[in-house]
Write a structure and sequence with these properties.
Structural class: alpha+beta
Distance between the termini: 31 Å
Number of helices: 4
Order of helices and strands: HHHHEEEE
Number of domains: 1
Largest sheet: 4 strands, antiparallel
CATH topology: Nuclear Transport Factor 2, Chain: A
Radius of gyration: 13 Å
Helix content: 25-40%
Number of strands: 4
Length: about 120
């Protein structure tokens, strides 16, 4: 099965090892892709664990799980990526099956060999 992050790789060779904690995401973009896949498969614990401690207090498992579950995730498009910034569009159908695009420029921070999502600017 192809990975949910639109990488054209198998899920088992792409995002799954990061979500399962077998490997650490080597780049901010890799973490971004694995977080998208985590929304797709409703892995709220992974999404919280990969959110930086400075902003984690603004997120909770119940809300993350609700957002992941209420929407049908269609595809991820990476617009631009640098060492610490990833701009992307996440395409999904909302609970009314209306097409939506979540366009974000996300900031990531690496601490002790682990990448974390810090926050994002929404368009």
């Amino acid at each position: 099965m192809n990975c949910y992050c639109s990488s054209n790789k198998l899920f088992s060779d792409c995002c799954e090892p990061y979500i399962k904690g077998i490997q650490k995401a080597p780049t901010a973009e890799t973490l971004m892709r694995s977080r998208y896949s985590a929304y797709y498969i409703k892995e709220a614990d992974y999404l919280l664990a990969t959110t930086h401690t400075s902003t984690r207090k603004h997120h909770n498992k119940k809300d993350i799980l609700a957002f992941a579950t209420e929407n049908h995730w269609v595809k991820l498009e990476i617009i631009n990526s640098s060492e610490t910034i990833v701009e992307f569009k996440a395409y999904y159908l909302d609970s009314h099956l209306t097409p939506q695009i979540h366009h974000e420029k996300s900031t990531f921070k690496k601490e002790e060999d682990r990448w974390y999502y810090v926050d994002g600017e929404f368009y």
